[in-house]
Amino acid sequence: MSTINADPAEIQKFSELAHRWWDPTSEFRPLHEINPLRLEWINQRIPLAGKNIIDVGCGGGILAESMAKKGATVTGIDLSDKALKVADLHSLESGVSVRYKKIPAEEMAEMEAGQFDVVTCMEMLEHVPDPASIIRACTRMVKPGGHVFFSTLNRNVKSYLFAIIGAEYVLQLLPKGTHDYAKFITPAELTQDVRNAGLELHAMRGLSYNPLTKMYSLNNDTSVNYMIACTKPA
């Protein structure tokens, strides 16, 4: 079998925090706060009710569960045992059914190619050695005519100051060492990767944090956090 496209240190980092995943006051507070914005943006582009969806790099299941609450059939995949156990337990407690699997995206793409109406891959590409491989796997998993969503961090001076210095050190919104600036991905690079994988890019949105109001908002500023919406040609 080929080498798994994952950094063991990254998996370990998130595994150590897994028990805090569903605590909205923990290190995962930013995920809880941006999740409604991401969810609504996705749901506006493709109503999720009745859709078969896979969330790649699902972690503790925050986005996966919220999509299931919209009436979707959701699968979440990740490589962290601890995060998946937390996700499973929360699913049982909340009564929101999600299928969770520990499997690399590339392997899942071999097993369930063309099976999903929607593929989401949020805040993951900047944590893997080969993001283009993940993008190709997501493309294989989605049905022709289906939708794929990615979110990641731009690579520039502002994103370094905001996402690392600001978020990890000054405001302490995230644990120190959460991000590696060298792995950040510019919109131009991500656009190239999705097109190389055979996807069509339809929309891009920025996600900004205002430290004064402590609120996140969706806008056209893609200089730090951003999301893209793609489709696979029918």
Automatic annotation (TrEMBL):
Record field: catalytic activity: a 3-demethylubiquinol + S-adenosyl-L-methionine = a ubiquinol + S-adenosyl-L-homocysteine + H(+); a 3-(all-trans-polyprenyl)benzene-1,2-diol + S-adenosyl-L-methionine = a 2-methoxy-6-(all-trans-polyprenyl)phenol + S-adenosyl-L-homocysteine + H(+)
Q: Where does S-adenosyl-L-methionine bind?
A: 38, 57, 78, 122
Q: Which residues cross the membrane?
A: none
Instruction: Return one GO MF term.
Output: 3-demethylubiquinol 3-O-methyltransferase activity
Q: Which UniProt keywords apply?
A: Methyltransferase, S-adenosyl-L-methionine, Transferase, Ubiquinone biosynthesis
> EC annotation?
2.1.1.222, 2.1.1.64
Query: Which BP terms from GO are recorded?
Result: methylation
The EC class name is: transferase
Q: Which Pfam families does the entry link to?
A: Methyltransf_23
Question: What CDD domains does its record include?
Answer: AdoMet_MTases (cd02440)
Family per UniProt? Belongs to the methyltransferase superfamily. UbiG/COQ3 family.
> Mind telling me what this protein is named?
Ubiquinone biosynthesis O-methyltransferase
- What gene name is listed for this protein? ubiG
